[in-house]
Design brief:
- About 12% of the residues have low confidence.
- This protein has 114 residues and is an all-alpha fold.
- The protein is elongated, with a radius of gyration of 23 Å.
- It is built from 6 helices and no strands.
- The chain has 2 domains: 41 residues, no CATH class; 60 residues, no CATH class.
């Protein structure tokens, strides 16, 4: 996509201002936007993290979705039948939120910044 300089400046005035500035206001190794300290970024909490069945259950909106997750992961052999039954019992008795708070899209990206 091509865009002329005038249109770009009109659509993105602050970005244009930053790009045209002689010096940067923000260090490239900063941890947070607006941080003037320019610290270094902390290790990412979820690098090489492999989500387990509970992580997937926390993404579910309802009991039906959670049941499908348990069935699928058990069928693949990623959890044994005894554990799958324990999860089903918990789901039935306590509901989908008993596995943890709802994790919305972008959860791991947001959490890795803390």
């Amino acid at each position: 996509m091509e865009i002329d300089k005038g249109t770009f400046k009109k659509v993105f005035p602050h970005l244009t201002e930053e790009m045209e500035a002689k010096e940067s206001k923000e260090g490239i190794d900063s941890t947070k936007p607006g941080s003037l300290t320019g610290g270094t970024m902390s290790p990412k909490r979820f690098d090489d993290y492999n989500p387990d069945v509970i992580d997937f259950l926390c993404r579910c909106d309802n009991e039906k979705q959670a049941q499908e997750i348990i069935d699928y992961i058990a069928k693949r052999g990623e959890i044994d039948k005894k554990y799958a039954q324990k999860l089903r019992t918990q789901l039935k008795k306590e509901g989908v939120r008993s596995f943890g708070a709802k994790r919305e899209e972008g959860y791991y990206l947001r959490e890795s910044r803390h």
